[in-house]
Amino acid sequence: MSVTVIPQVRADVERNRATILGAAIILLGQHPQSSMQQVADAAGLNRATLYRHFRNRDDLLAALQAKALADSAALAETIPTDGPALPALLEYLEAAITVGERYRFISMAPRTEPSLFGAEGRALRPVAAAVRRGQAQGEFDPHLDPGFVAGLVVMLVIEVVGVVERGSLSFEDARAQAMRTFGNVLRARRG
To answer: Domain 1-54 class?
Structure first.
């Protein structure tokens, strides 16, 4: 009997963790100061179950940051490795803004954890590769540093979230501004 119980227990644990993270993404996106009890309620679980997965709010936020980075890395892996780079990068930026909006409560948090910078850098490697490809094909300014341009994507996503949170622009207007800015930076002076 224990042979069939263990896989079921593991499946329940994974399902509960995914439920908590999904509920936390939605709840904290709407109400960033929500309590752990409110997260448990939103997940439809009791607080004890929540605390079995995450000892405190910091653990939950760390798991959400890791999930946001994993989602971003998976998105970056979808950038085509051939063909024109500009449309591919603009499509990527548009999707990255959507991910940033989903995780806006994290996007607005201070960026001070060193391990996150390493993970972010690894997640942006496909972006830098696409920039190098665009430079080699003559699409982009050859003087731009590909790593810097990849980091610019992160900053544009954060700025979109920020101007929307401040009420300066609608989400669609902020997205359009980011797309235009990014395209203009890449196509800047080539000589």
So the answer is: mainly alpha
